[in-house]
């Protein structure tokens, strides 16, 4: 089976994750063509070519689509901080960067790693076989004149690439004046990036018509979308609650998913916070977002495989639709009338195909867009259904892909963890500004004095009211005091195990003080440690207790 998987990927020696991320297809052929050529049965590409999938949906995949680093697409209305967000992550300026309160970024800018700092204009960029942008040439000069690649030697960009998009405006004039289909370009990027970050300004929560259309262009890519509520330090806590609620209400009208989108709240720029009431919240949210971005290189191989599976499923559905239209066409007369009838009946055809082939409705392309595209085609030139092509794709999805997934998981366990490093990601990983440093169970780690000692006089008064015998209180008496915290028994049981340093089933005054300190940590909203840190061990027990790992 391992040989079959290796032959499927057309490279006998490279690890699976490398083959998916740094795949070489020999003669500059599309990756799918290499897969098809390497195995006995055809795979996805022949099916796509037979039914003109590339004309209706997405161009054929190339080497660069598998070789490129994970990409992040930033989308938002003007002056929501998209370019500033990139500057914040990189901690340096990049070529073509413009920041201001007015609409400044009027181009798509791909920020990528390069040994020397510079920029490449769009027309030159789409002929570079090493970059994953060749298929963007179909959007014409109006788009290419507003597309560029900024390259600079930055540590962050060694692991990821970032796509900055023009600020979205409201009104029909701005939409027409672009000169290209903005939503189609966004859809092209959305199919290829690993993360889509929608940025909102705390003072600009309205979703314009163009922004709404842009978000709808991400249909089918919901798992990639993250939302950032930026500039949240410019409102107080009460206003922030209202802003968050209004944002979720606005998003609910344009994103039709049962799940609630993950929203990261903060102020993503290297300037002092205007309102520090929610500093702890902003820090926690920033760390969550950083962790999500940092994990992208590690998950890149699985993501590429997941996108390939989605593409194969759509190619199958497309083949069923096209072959059905071909079958229904008359051989002689009334072709135009029949074509119009079939286009009008397309929603019914979808339902019929769902029942006939047991396909989920979510796998079908959008009806309206498909109807508009079909207007330009002669149905009599479509191909009839070729079962062998369908069987080949089914075999790949059923057998090859499942085996490949398990092989990827095994190799990821044996490979070192890949994380994004540099820039803002290094600022909070070590030292006193690491999240949670000096807080909760980590408080007092750098102090010589036992951190519990400052509150010990208060705890001692409670201790002596619990009838200690020979300087210790029983578990029964300790429980009477500990349950007053109203914490669940599972938590109190963990606190008891941490505090009973000598495991004798009783607490002396230092152990009792430690138990009360741990209760306070939990009530303050921090997590308890799995083992007692050395700095929390009571002074009288430090010789007898081994140091925690």
Gyration radius, to the nearest Å? 30 Å
Shape: elongated
What fraction of the residues are assigned to beta strands by DSSP? 5-15%
The total of beta strands comes to 10
Mean pLDDT: 83
Instruction: List low-confidence stretches.
Output: 1-42, 545-549
**Could you tell me how far the N terminus lies from the C terminus, measured between alpha carbons in angstroms?**
42 Å
The main pleated sheet reads as: 8 strands, mixed
Overall SS class? alpha/beta
Number of separate helices: 23
Strand order of the largest sheet: 3-4-2-5-1-6-7-8
Features:
549 residues; alpha/beta; 45% helix; elongated; disordered C terminus; ATP binding; EF_hand_dom; Dynamin_N; endosome; ATP-binding
Describe the fold and architecture.
The chain is an alpha/beta fold and 549 residues long. The chain contains 23 helices and 10 strands. The chain has an 8-stranded mixed β-sheet with strand order 3-4-2-5-1-6-7-8. It has a two-stranded antiparallel sheet with strand order 9-10. Helix 20 crosses helix 23 and helix 22 crosses helix 23. It starts with a helix and ends in a 26-residue tail after the last helix. Keywords: ATP-binding, Calcium, Cell membrane, Endosome, Membrane, Metal-binding, Nucleotide-binding, Phosphoprotein. GO terms for molecular function: ATP binding; calcium ion binding; GTP binding; protein-macromolecule adaptor activity. This is EH-domain containing 4.
